[in-house]
Amino acid sequence: MNCEEFEREFANLEHLSDDSAALEAHRASCRSCAGLVSDVKFITAEARQMTSSSEPSGRVWRQIHSELQKSGLIKEPRQTVFAPAPAFGWFPRMSMGLAYAAVFVIALGVVYIYSILAPRVATPALPQPPNPPFAQVFEKIPPQQRSTYVNHLNQVDASIEQLKAFLAAHPEDPFARQELFTTYQQKSRLWEDLVRWHDFSESTAPPAIPEAIPASSQP
Amino acid sequence: MNPSPEVPDSREANAIEEAKKGSAAAFEYLYEKHKRRVYSLCLRMTGDTAEAEDLTQEAFLQMFRKIGTFRGESAFSTWLHRLAVNLVLMRLRKKNVLTSSLDEAQGQDPGENRVREYGAADVVLTGAVDRVTLERAIEALPAGYRTIFHLHDVEGYEHKEIAGMIGCSVGNSKSQLHKARMKLRELLQMRPTGPSESEAETEKEQK
């Protein structure tokens, strides 16, 4: 085998390790061909180890992301971190969630059973609203202030009527009862303001306000 | 392509499933994991950073569009890599770089017809070439040679696969690879190995 034949056969190898005996024999006796093989082996070995050191600029991902959004491939809001690190990471937490759910369902059941079994207690009567003599005082104040106070009074009275109507339909609703009491307090404060404004406090005593509303029966 | 040791990655498998459902975070995870390899492939095969970025973008977009069809028969990285290679080859074909380099360059490249002086003692490269010099030499190869060299010697594709991808015969692929290696060897042998200008000046001053 001469050098030309050697090179032709060497070029036809699928892998450099597929060296034939004839090639090896020629290489052993020819420094030039041995150098060629040595160089090619060195080049390919170095090439295989070339690392991916460079990376694309941030612009590439921004454009990909924008294209994905435009084409509708992204179907959920962007998360800051993709954290599937432990596969099925939610799985260990599922038992905790189930425990909470079970406690909630049991508590609901207990409340429902108690509401069925508990003896019905008569709902106490609603307290009466304060009823000071607004009309008498209105006559004594200038028309500008009067209209303001009249408007406030009308709003408060309207609220009281609405709440009373609601409580008539839902007598055991503790929130509506509390709201009614608050509205009574507003009406009382309105009266106090009116009196203070005109310095009628000495001659006109504020009406009695119910101290508290008797606790309604709880279901 | 030579099988590379692929470690089963449950995070990646999870991300692939999430990406199929349209998770933006999963898309980003897959991009971050594979961007370097895809970009390097594109950069080394085209030798142009702007074109490599363009091709990287196109490769990932195509991958995300087709991810619903990925069934896991091959490794995800292999699938993505093949997709990127096809894109680069398509681009080179469009520019007529690949065809002209592979089939018509004979006689155009002055190094092509250079006959090796059989029996003459060549400069032995081993141990005298650093990675950067090698990368520069690969970049200096004609596009067709660079493509074959990269696919076979860097990425590990078989000649049969390369022939299928490029549309040439196995013999042609082998022949082009050998020429690419010879050209590369020549480029590396021709590189300046003497002292640099500053070193030469220092030596002059010392004399």
Descriptors for this entry?
heterodimer, A: 219 residues, mainly alpha, 61% helix, B: mainly alpha, Rna Polymerase Sigma Factor, Chain: A, Arc Repressor Mutant, subunit A, 2 domains, 68% helix, elongated
CATH class designation of the largest domain in chain B? Mainly Alpha
Largest interface: A-B, 54 and 61 residues
CATH fold-level label of the largest domain in chain B: Rna Polymerase Sigma Factor, Chain: A
Which class best fits the helix and strand makeup of chain A?
Answer: mainly alpha
Low-confidence stretches of chain A at least 5 residues in length (pLDDT < 50)?
A: 200-205, 215-219
The helix/strand class of chain B is: mainly alpha
Overall outline of chain A: rod-shaped
The CATH architecture of the largest domain in chain B would be Orthogonal Bundle
Tell me, rounded to a whole number, the average pLDDT of chain B.
Answer: 78
**How many domains comprise the coordinates of chain A?**
3
- SSE order of chain A in H/E notation? HHHHHHHH
The fraction of residues in strands of chain A falls at: under 5%
Estimate percent helicity of chain B: 55-70%
Main sheet record of chain B: none
The CATH superfamily of the largest domain in chain B turns out to be RNA polymerase sigma factor, region 2, helix turn helix motif
Choose one word for the global shape of chain B: elongated
Written account of the structure:
The complex is a heterodimer of chains A (219) and B (207). With 219 residues, chain A is an all-alpha fold. Chain A has helices at 3-11, 21-29, 31-48, 58-70, 91-117, 134-138, 143-169, 174-198. Chain A is rod-shaped and about 130 Å long. Mean pLDDT of chain A is 75; it is low at 200-205 and 215-219. Chain B contains 10 helices and no strands. Chains A and B meet through α1, α3 and α4 of A and α1, α2, α3, α6 and α7 of B.
